[in-house]
Batch of 2 targets.
Target 1
Amino acid sequence: MTTAPSGPPALQTVNLVKIYQTGGLPVPAVRGVDLRVERGEFVAIMGPSGSGKSTLVHMLGGLDTRTSGEIWIDGRRADTLSESAWAILRRQKIGFVFQFFNLVGNMTVADNVELPALLSGASPKHARERREYLLGELNLTDKADEAPGRLSGGEQQRVALARALANQPQVLLADEPTGNLDSRNTRDVLRLLGQVHRQGQTIVMVTHEARVAGLADRVVTLLDGQIVDDGAVAPARRRKQGPGDVVELHG
Amino acid sequence: MNTAERRWIFADLRARRAQAALTVLAVAGIVTALITAATLLEDGTNPWRGLFTRGNGAHIWLHTRDAPDPAALRALDGVTDVAGPYRGAPATLVQGGKKTPVALQEMAPVLPAVGRPIVREGRWLDAGDARGVVLERSFARAVGLGTGGRFSVIGLNGATHDLTVIGLAESGDQGFYPEWTPGLAWTLESTLEQVEPALGRSESVTGLRLADPDDTSLVVQRTITKLAGQVQRVSTWREVRASMELDNRLLGVLLALFGVAGLVAAALAIANATGGRVLTQRRDIATLKSLGFTRRQVVRMLLAEHGLLGLAGIAAGVLCGRLITVYALADTVVVPLSSAPLLAIALGTALVVLVAVWLPAWRGGRTPPIPAAPVAPPRGHLSHLARLALLVRLPPALVLGARDAFTRRLPALLTTFGLAIPMMLITIGLGCWATLDAFRAHPEQVGQAAALIVRPGSVPATADAGRPAELALADPDVVAVFPGTEVDALVPGQTRTVRARAVGTVSDPYPYSVVEGRMFRDRGEAVAGQGLLDLLNVRIGDRTRLTIGGTPLIVRIVGRVLEPEQDGEVLSVPLDTLAPKDALPPQFYSLALRQGAEPEAVRARLQGQGLEVSQVVNPADRLSVIRIIIVALVAVLALLGLANLLTASAVGLRDHAADLAVLKAMGLTPRQVMATLVTGTGLLVVIGVGAGAAAGSFVSAGLIDLQGAASGVGAGIGRAPTPAMLLPAVLTAVGAALLVALIPARRAARARVPVTPR
């Protein structure tokens, strides 16, 4: 484990509840989740469709409001923040990667990656340097001036990853980052996630693929909005990645 | 504003250049139309401004016995330049046996730098043509002389000289005839010398141009002191301007209505374009928010982006307005719009643009930050009607398109309104056009039964007061002759007089167009225009007391007539109601002509018999500028409709991006897919255009009547557009809209459709 020895956890939730109102009927999506993610930890959240894993990760990033419970980010209570305070918190401490990449279609790859840095007040020069570094790391330097629409899915997701990492966030939240990719691109993206994790990045990743979850330090399984399993993955197993590695044991 | 925000705005503008250009164009069109309209209005009601500027006029004209020293006048404080001194002499113009006083003024064959007459027809004085004179245009019209016309003048010594009109000119230094008398004729020095050889019977006319027009009275005082008793008469630019100013409230009200309508249409177009754009961008906006853009930042970006387009449009419009004034209207308008109305137009439009952009921007700011959230998926199922339609084998594309049109209720409503309102305004514009046509075709229905007016003149009629009437009646085209008199009447409680018109008698009344109440049937009864009823605050059936030439008169107002003159502030009584001293002899005879007769021809015939005949100005002639504005407005409104339509197609395509794959998978050919999309938009177009045209023709007559009432003419002038006008307009609108909808639909139908979002 690369957990930092001291300091508050990167992320913590206390009895987090989300209830949607659908046609006047309350539909609970998350029912009292207590989750603690230490700094530098890589947590995979698994579960079948509708188990509340996406809702949970959206709430962790402030994209969705909680019904009750507490969210602590980096030792600060965040669930009581206003919408704009959440936005500012996101710029500084949280990076998001989505299943459908969600690059801004009108902007070039370079602009997409520079946007978060510029947003948090970095100078255009600093933002450019950071972008050049990130795109270089992700092997995308020659795609900098392309429109996102002209890139393959894997390339787009790598750009999205670069954008999420632009501000060196405290936590990287990834919602099914490989859900829309073929196996080769999945492997590429996972390799990159592993790489940034080794550099000390805290990652919370939602996935329903056991093979993808196997990359994490710890796998949390949700069912019907509740944590049914929370366990570390043996480090030895993580080294061996491949098509044959499909049998997973949980719970 | 943050660099990130700026970068997003520019990226978005780059991505939709055509749409952005259309928004700019629409706003620019509205602003240009408003500026042009206001310029024409200002110029039309205040012709002095243009004439004075173009002729580099003199602010003060001095009439002195002897020629003053120009150098001494130029040396006066505040005087920048001097025109003249010119020699001037009074004479009598004789033409066809009738005499009119005229002022002759010498001028050089080369036009002077200051106080320059503007030649409108023919040419200026020529040193080789001693008989040629140039007449002031309004005077020439009044006496019925044109270029090439011959007349004679009698000097004070009684000698007659034959002269020829070689040109007609206007001047900002002389008011229009007959408000400004005597009429003016410019002659060569030698010609004047012949007509009036005696220097003692002529005067000297000198113009002073001032650095600051506000110093006029001060300079006048100084000059009078300086010239010590020599000055006989002084006229200033203020008097000239006042004599030229038209109080054309009807025109003003019409233009104001157009302006407001145009602004409403522009607001709708911008709100629609911005709203549509924001709707198609919700996913991007959600992504931005997930990156850490705050709600306020999103609102600010959208406001800035769309607001900037609007402001760019305003700037372009102001520029275009100026260019049109300078180039397209160079002949009619010389002076650009003064700054107050220009500023009002620019600021008013800016306000409208910002308000129109604000609501969609605010809604954009409220987008939830989860980019994956589906945008309210279009729902709907095949209705029984649709099933029935499919059952009777209507083309499936039509049925599916019709269903698509209404799946998203709010955008469907916005599109329909976005098209209905421009169409309604176009219909109202056509109604104005029809009203003008009615003015022209049936002047008797708007209170102008008489096309010609005969004045007994000075020579033959005094002996025999009835003679002009007999002469006129002898003409085959004249149906009726009504003796008449116009007098000023004092009304108790009013500081000014009103016009009392007595035309026709109780037994033989003038055919007024009575729209309320009834015609007068007895002495002591009167009918009045809306303007007078408003002014005196009386209603039909009320009695009112007036004083005419010292004689008190009590009349009962029994009806309201359409009154195109004097802003409707006219009281019409039978001639025999007036005291004989006021009524006899009649000042003029109004001639009603046979339907279809040419007033010009009749006038020429009667003038040939020595009568002084003038033609009544049709209100439609004064309002002819409205026609230009209607055409411009229709163009701008069509542009706005187009902008709305493009937004609608963009939103429609976005909604159907996923459906398209399904439709194709179901086996619809590209042509059927295209037909589906066009039907979806086209149905809304037909509903919008139809509703707009119906609403427009329903309200146009009422609205024009409202304007009529506000302008004093009175309700009852409004006409709805004729079907022959409306039908082509509707068909053109629908046809053009379908063509516009076809292009994106065609492209979408042929494009390879992605199955996943993005």
Target 2
Amino acid sequence: MDKRTSIKETIKSIVIVVLTLSTILLLYVFWKDLSFNQLSFSEIDLDFGFGDEEEMPAERLVEDIALPSAIIIGTGEGDYFVKTDTKELYGSPEDPSSLVSVICGFGKGEELFIEEISEEQYKEAYKYKSVRAVFNYLVPILDYYKFKGEKAFSGVEDVSNLSEIGFSEVAKDSVLAYDAQQNRYFRIVTGETGSDWMDTFFAAHDFSEEASYYPLEAFLGEGNGTDVMVPMYMESDMTVREASLGRDPAADLIRAKAFFGKTFDFVRKIEEAGGKVIYMYGYGETTLILAEDGSIEYKAGESGRQTLNYFEALDTAIKFIDRHEPVPTGGAVLPGIRLEKSSIDDSGYKTYRFEFSQMVGGEEIFFKDGPSVVVEVSGGVVSYFYAKRPFVAEPSADAKQAKEPVFAAINTIAANYESIAQMLGEELTMEEVAQRLTSVKYGYLCEEGALSPVWEIKAAGLNESLYFDLYTAKSYGLD
Amino acid sequence: MDWTKAKTILIIALLATNVFLIYSHQTRHMDVHETGNDEVVAQLMEQRNLELTVEIPKVQPNVHILHGEYLSVDREEIKALAFSVPRVEGGYEKAAEDFLEYLGIFDEAVVYDSTTSGTDRPEGAEYDACVHFVNVVDGLQIAENFIDVYFEEGQVSDMKYRFLDDVELSPRRVETISAAVAVMSLGSETPGEKLVITGIRPVYRVPEADIELGETVSDTAFPAWEITLGSGEKKYVEAVQI
């Protein structure tokens, strides 16, 4: 090959490379439907769908979210252990010895005998060595079997909605259940559960380090107070943690695109002076609001035409949450979620409303302005979604690590009963205030960019919860 | 194998592919020229009680969606600069443009529309003249967007505005519905009512929102057909074809 031919061939090769590259670029422009004057390197987003699998959050199952709000372990000696971080104790449905397997499996028993018992009998049984899972929402047990594709034993439909379920050593062959909707108590003789399972459970878990809980009545005398459980003495290493609810405009755009998908090109974006950003599709039918306080609210323009059962709808809600979770930055963590409350509107294609609580380090996070994660599934599709998800920083190195005694719950009530009575609008003694209490829990209050350890107290007749510092009993927001 | 020949064939094939892709892409982004039957359209208009005194545009523009920030000028700055602009010598239009230049807001989107002065002014007007500018982006006016510069005794006295500024165009153009469809859709909204249409043109417009909004600092404008009725009233029909 002479020199001239060699140069010619080299030029041809270069031209082929240039033309191949330009063909690829043109195909990209054509595929993405970009106009040439809009083409810039920042526009080129080479997303071929090969996502980094490690970065994709694992899909959560119904069993990971539909957990009991508390598991109460009775020692048989008048005191109890109350576990609000229930995930570990509840276990996995794949583990046949787990609490969830036993609880959810009772209806599959071949031999099943159900009898209704009185409230007194039910409460008496739990005074003995016992384990009880308490749900803040109603669990339609038949729907669970349908959802799992399993056949339920006939007769189990009497216990339509579980609120509590557990075992006691006084009825070793039975499951005890409470249906709060019907206010009915049941003893279910299964022949499959009982002492073996209870022995295994107590052998597998050590509660010696746990704080002992007593009903309020035990502190105030019989007839004074409710059966709300509070710890007598408790130590905690909970400390104030930074919690960011701020927004990042770049992340906002990615999140908004996830809601609207291919229609995002037609979405109207409105920014308000306060920082609120509204995305709107159609004529305000579908809206997404990214508010100043870091919350996100989505309203779909239309509902579906499919009737789902409770757990199918819950599964739809969880998958929706998973797809729209924000990604924490700077080493912060996103709190886990747990089903806290649910309601069903039976009209039309059924609308399910699910409210979720958030947990960090096993402790619940409280928000003053109501539920922090809400999903409504209407006719099989998500019609409403609200989430306020803080990014929680790890405790700083100088934050205290050692456990400290907390201000006892009963003393917190004693120190604040007058202001609680004031909130109730009545002059009440401490005993009278205690009788009104419906819940006393500890956790973190999310407020002003921080999570603060608190006691959360709820009382009948009060729409809002009251919060008191876990270590000093100083109130948050009360005079 | 004859590599020289193979390379030549490959170059020709790649060139042909590129030409085809560029042509297809360009035609996709060109405005659509409607080829509908005028007689059928006229018949449908009559059935819907619509009377046209203008010809319906035959072009359906493929346009961008716009997002911009609303112009915001400190009132104190307007007052302070009003005195800096020389008294009207080159006419109100020139003085108003100079004023907008001083404010740093005069660019290619700010297009002079009209001047109202003398007997053209509405009754009770407290100004000598008003110079009206409109907002034009990508060849189309953004409806209901304006800057009005007022003059008193030959000097700028005030400025009123609603103006989507620093507009970004969507990466892609969107197809629009035809003017005929827009007019008929307007006719269906007012059944039985005779509408005389004296003007129709494509514009951009920020749609009304069904939800309550606070003070808006930025918004999105979509293509729309602006239909002027005999009474002078302007109606808008959203034109994005989804």
